[in-house]
Design brief:
Helix content is 31%, strand content 28%. The chain contains ten helices and eleven strands. It is globular and about 55 Å long.
């Protein structure tokens, strides 16, 4: 267990809880690198049913306690995005009510599924509830953007098309899809993957013409087959550079593709990869096979939506 910050006196207010769902990039195109060094992206984002859990006990001092099976992977808790988000919001909201955050950490870190971003987003939702702040409040939206590129989409925690540097979100009526997520428990730094992609400031990525044209995604209620056909035409532009950084990602993808999955791809900047199946039973069998073959890997069978 890791603790940071001053502990509060016992609170008379009830604790508030939120789940932080894993983010999965079903597609990810790198449009180009801007003059300021940030990368413009276009990504179809879904969320999984594997989660971290965050609790806020209102009090006078801001602090964070991290526990759970992934607590030791969080690094220095003082640098955790939960506290960063809370401090940034406190700079914008007078007399912001905070307290003790308790993080039950299960998602792998530096894994391409936005675990830290999802935790920060959960913290913002908790602070919004504790202080009567609307989720659409401009101050909260600004803090989400400043905390991290994936935090705005994780605040909403619903399927959407994410563009720009994560600030523009278009909701999608994505159906629930049985899936398996696999991470080889090798952390991958996003900065290393973008460095391997090798775009200079102001440079567009090759093949960007098909990104600029607006894609018409299936309507809410459309058959899963329609969605899979559209998603199969996509790609993850960071997959190849991520494999150069951590070749084990290629092994993960090969094993997922050998399961008979309908679609397999890397999420974000890796190393987590996902596979979509026709039914839940096939997804569970695939995950179990991978766990038996590679017990050191993290594998989750569940649903993307």
């Amino acid at each position: 267990m890791i603790v940071t910050g001053a502990m509060n006196m016992k609170s008379t207010e009830p604790a508030l809880s939120e789940t932080a769902r894993a983010k999965v990039n079903l597609t990810l195109r790198v449009v180009g690198r801007r003059a300021d060094g940030f990368h413009d992206l276009e990504s179809v984002v879904a969320f999984a049913d594997c989660v971290d859990r965050l609790t806020l006990t209102p009090g006078t001092e801001l602090s964070l306690v991290a526990g759970g099976p992934g607590a030791q992977e969080c690094g220095q808790t003082a640098d955790n995005l939960v506290l960063k988000a809370a401090r940034l919001l406190g700079e914008r909201v007078t007399n912001l009510k905070t307290g003790v955050f308790a993080l039950d950490k299960h998602l792998p870190v530096a894994a391409g599924i936005g675990g830290g971003s999802a935790d920060a987003a959960a913290a913002l939702r908790l602070l919004a509830r504790a202080n009567g702040i609307a989720i659409g409040d401009r101050r909260l939206i600004e803090v989400a953007r400043l905390t991290g590129a994936d935090v705005p989409v994780c605040v909403r925690s619903e399927a959407c098309v994410m563009t720009g540097v994560g600030e523009t979100l278009q909701p999608l009526g994505l159906p629930a899809m049985p899936a398996v997520l696999v991470n080889p428990r090798v952390p991958v730094a996003t900065k290393d993957v973008f460095a391997a992609l090798g775009l200079r400031k102001g440079e567009l990525h090759l093949g960007v013409s098909d990104v600029i044209e607006a894609i018409v995604w299936p309507k809410t209620g459309a058959p899963t087959d329609d969605w899979l056909a559209m998603l199969a035409d996509g790609t993850n532009d960071l997959e190849a550079p991520a494999i150069r950084v951590q070749p084990v990602i290629g092994e993960v993808l090969a094993r997922l593709r050998a399961t008979g999955a309908r679609l397999s791809r890397m999420s974000g900047s890796g190393a987590t990869c996902f596979a979509i199946f026709g039914n839940e039973a096939d997804a569970r069998r695939a995950a179990q096979t991978i766990r038996l073959d590679r017990p050191q890997w993290w594998a989750h069978a569940g649903t993307l939506s």
